[in-house]
């Protein structure tokens, strides 16, 4: 049973980064193997992640209210995560839209899709990085064991 917005956010926040990473690997495999099924599967995963990133982001807004008063949690850690989460939200939705367009194009004319697949692959590659940074910054909010590096503290302006 979901207890509060922070709990919901913790349940959802792993899905977009892991999903986009799996989709990225599947898309590469599909391009190498020239498998339409693998490519379509990857695009489907990207679309699902584009949908899931929305409630993930919305639950994050509510989760902030749950954790902001907890010991060791600062507005700076939350804000740093939130800024990257906005980029991840937009980029993952763009990836989903590009995936829908690619699926439609492939159904009409498979020859047109090669440049579109290349574009989706590049967007997915960037999105994997953005989502991983977002996840790391989210972990910094409550996981003090990963805050020990002074480089991380300096990056966040907490020195």
Description:
The chain has helices at residues 5-12, 15-33, 36-67, 75-108, 113-142, 150-155. The model has no long low-confidence stretch (mean pLDDT 88). It is mostly helical and 159 residues long. It has one domain (5-155). It is built from six helices and no strands.
Keywords:
6 helices; mainly alpha; 159 residues
What is the mean predicted local confidence, pLDDT? 88
Order of helices and strands: HHHHHH
Measured by DSSP, the beta-strand proportion falls in: under 5%
Poorly predicted parts: none
Going by helix content, strand content and strand pairing, the class is mainly alpha
Q: How many individual β-strands?
A: 0
How many structural units, i.e. domains? 1
Q: Count the helices. How many?
A: 6
* Cα end-to-end separation: 39 Å
Write the layout of secondary structure elements.
Elements: H1 5-12, H2 15-33, H3 36-67, H4 75-108, H5 113-142, H6 150-155
Helix pairs in contact: 1-3, 2-3, 2-5, 3-4, 4-5
Short structural summary:
The protein is mostly helical and 159 residues long.
